[in-house]
Amino acid sequence: MKKISILFLTFIFSSNVLAWQPTTPVRAIIGYGPGSGNDLVFRKLSDIVSQQNPNVQFIIEYKPGADGTIAMNYLLDQPNNGTVVAVPSFSSIFVANDIWQQNKKFNFDSFVNVLGLGKSPLALVAHLSSGVNTPKEFINLIQHTSNNVNVAVGSGAHHLSFEYVMIKTNASRQRVQAINYKGPVDAVTSVASGQLEFGIVPMAVAQPLVENNKIKIIGITGNKKLSRYPNAELLADVIPGINVQAGWMLSLPPNTSKVIVDWYQREFKKAIDSKNYQEWAEKNYILIADNELTSDGLTESGKKFRKSLEPVIKGLEKN
Fold first, then answer.
1. Intra-chain end-to-end CA distance of the chain, in Å
2. SS3 for 29?
3. What domains sit in the chain, N to C, each tagged with a CATH number?
4. Quick count: other Cβ atoms within 10 Å of Cβ 191?
5. Residue 247 above 70 pLDDT?
6. Strands of 87-221, DSSP E
7. Ramachandran class of 35: left when φ > 0, alpha when ψ lies in -120 to 50, beta otherwise
8. Fewer CB within 10 Å of terminal CB in the chain, N or C?
9. What residues are paired with 247 via a beta bridge?
């Protein structure tokens, strides 16, 4: 009888653990402004998660600035009971924040990273009045220009791509520089308005302005051409090895328990696998990295990314 009671209590305890889910609205911290890739993918996925779990609600809190550092510094001190999550940028959290953000309180592995939410090729874009139309023409410009050339960037991924181009092409640093904006929307808007001639932003963010004939694509990162823009050339064809993409992920505060991590990983993966998200992602040039759909896989991918960017980091140290 005693053994039966113990087994029964064990079953009840296990069932309660497996049944964990948020019982109050979840605060989602985003370190960029509305319209960023972080914002777009999380809004879409969290809506699907809420539809599949009617009692779960998400409230987005924007804490823009310092390439997501303000938001992640904030997450570091939040309770690890599953009521607060963050949506950092993959390239920023794993590499860029280490290079450019002196006031960060965290390391690349400080948080519990749940899974990747998607990635988007970066687009080198230009104002319609620009005389530059191809990657080769852009490289020729930044190598030989006698005028100042400013390139708008809105996050660490964009800035890393810019630096990769500068290092690999030996471009003029006295004439060519990146101008940092609070997020990709601000960066691409500066190009569309003619404030700056060039920008590097996620294709997912640039697409509406391209479709409305406000900016033009000079080239894209990645190794696959865009079906709707077949004339957009691959930057890798003239700058081999440029593989930085905009990527977004779901993170929890340090030492969050496994049962909470498992719930978020399971429910957001179900949302990612849904037809609703898959069709939306394809339409918006958001790619799903299957190897980043678990906590371990995402962490391993981040470490490999850090390794692949060592030439850029060393090049920046020299400069």
1. 74
2. strand
3. 25-119+246-318 (3.40.190.150), 121-237 (3.40.190.10)
4. 27
5. yes
6. 112-127, 149-153, 176-180, 198-202, 215-220
7. left
8. N
9. 119
* Cα–Cα separations (whole angstroms), residue 153 to 22, 160, 190, 212, 276: 36, 10, 10, 21, 30
CA distance 197 to 216: 11
Distance separating alpha carbons of residues 55 and 57, to the nearest angstrom: 7
DSSP 87: -
State how far the Cα of 215 lies from the Cα of 198, in Å rounded to an integer: 9
Mean pLDDT of 113-127: 96
Q: Which two tokens stand for residue 179?
A: 């101008």
What mean pLDDT is predicted for residues 217-240?
89
Q: Tell me the C-alpha distance between 284 and 199, whole Å.
A: 19
Instruction: Quote the pLDDT of residue 16.
Output: 45
CB-count exposure of residue 307 (10 Å: 0-12, 13-18, 19+) = exposed
Residue 6 confidence (pLDDT):
54
Q: What secondary structure does DSSP assign to 217-228, as a single string?
A: EEEESSSS-BTT
Enter the tokens of residue 155.
Answer: 């996050």
Task: Give residue-wise pLDDT tens across range 64-73.
Answer: 999 999 999 9
Residue 122 and residue 158 in contact, taking contact as beta carbons nearer than 8 Å: yes
